[in-house]
Amino acid sequence: KNEVEQSPQNLTAQEGEFITINCSYSVGISALHWLQQHPGGGIVSLFMLSSGKKKHGRLIATINIQEKHSSLHITASHPRDSAVYICAVYRGGADGLTFGKGTHLIIQP
Amino acid sequence: DVKVTQSSRYLVKRTGEKVFLECVQDMDHENMFWYRQDPGLGLRLIYFSYDVKMKEKGDIPEGYSVSREKKERFSLILESASTNQTSMYLCASSRQEGAFFGQGTRLTVV
After folding, report:
1. Rounded to the nearest 5 degrees, what angle is found at the Cα of B5, between the Cα atoms of B23 and B18?
2. How many CB pairs under 8 A join A and B?
3. How far apart are CA B44 and CA A95, in angstroms?
């Protein structure tokens, strides 16, 4: 079983819809990242969370450490939000990140 | 601005060639990583390094080696490229929880 599970794997929505992407993990972590990758592009870190909630523009990320669960929300979605969103957890030390398989989001105009 | 730079965005090599992928970071980070990204498999760790001349195998090290002679540079080496190494390769560096990624190198082995 993958240590980091994301859902859904694929999501197509209409412009303006509220989007939620979920991430569950099974290991103890010290931080969780939400990453964004546009088609053909590099990876950009959107958020790093160790507790609570963070907001940046139309993006909101929450984490519940007890339930080992995080969500990424996009309000008023736009076609430029179309990308792969990846959840990654950091377990500490020099082990690097463990990644979910990503959620492929398409926002249609 | 933090920067992780990979030497090439696109690379085409022949089967059996020795291939070098270079990664440089300007943040004085101790930890550097090489991942490959494949459809349906996500990102998988090939090797990482937590200090100069130190290296550790990740999840899929077979067919690869690495070199870290200077803190800012981490090289991934394909000793004899094979078609199943066609992939997107991503370098990252980190200190504590923060991670920064390069733009990726799309390698095609023909």
Report:
1. 35
2. 53
3. 12
